[in-house]
Amino acid sequence: MDVYTSLVSFAAVVGLLTLTPGLDTALILRTSLLSGRASAWAVVLGIQAGTLSWGALTAAGLSALLAASQLAYDILRWAGAVYLVWMGVQMLWHSRRSGPDEAATPDQPSGDSRWSAFRRGLLTNLLNPKVGVFYIAMLPQFMPDDVPHVVMGLLLAGVHVGEGLLWSALLIGFAGLVRGWLRRPSVRRGLDRLTGLVVVGFGLRMAAQQS
């Protein structure tokens, strides 16, 4: 398998994964609708930075530790589960505390809020051992023998990132079209509660899953 064939084949596989609704989609939509486009792109960049990190770690052989050590996998899984549950509870608590005036006022994302959004996206990705296991299982199948593994791993992860950026752009664009209606106080609180429940659900599912 040459480099071009590997990239195209991998693009087809991760394209389906990218289009499947999940935690990333929920976080991007929620951030775009409630905090604005800049914060939403910060979340996206955090997620994709995590994807590149997993690609590099897998190609370098470091993340194989997750496959070889049940303890390492469980530590990362529980850390991710606790983080997701904490983040979801924060969203639910914020929806309780938001009054009509606060919810009706559009957020003005600051540098700090954009950094927080980036960190949220990055940690959500890096603390999900399923992403690492996916890369461990998939990348070796698309590695040509005559290309350095770290370079090829970054190229394949770059394909994943590119597709993720395109899909995220569509999500953020859609959110921009309906943002005026969704900024109504009752809708905003409902969206925060729904996203919080989804995030808590992902955290609980991660805690219950085994490698």
Task: Compose a concise summary of this entry.
With 211 residues, the chain is an all-alpha fold.
Structural commentary:
- The chain has one domain.
- The chain is 83% helix and 0% strand.
- By secondary structure, it is mostly helical.
- About 6% of the residues have low confidence.
- One of its GO terms (molecular function) is amino acid transmembrane transporter activity.
- Keywords: Cell membrane, Membrane, Transmembrane, Transmembrane helix.
- It is found in: Cell membrane.
- It is a multi-pass membrane protein.
Note the topology.
Blueprint: H1 3-19, H2 23-35, H3 37-60, H4 64-68, H5 70-97, H6 100-104, H7 111-126, H8 129-138, H9 149-182, H10 185-208
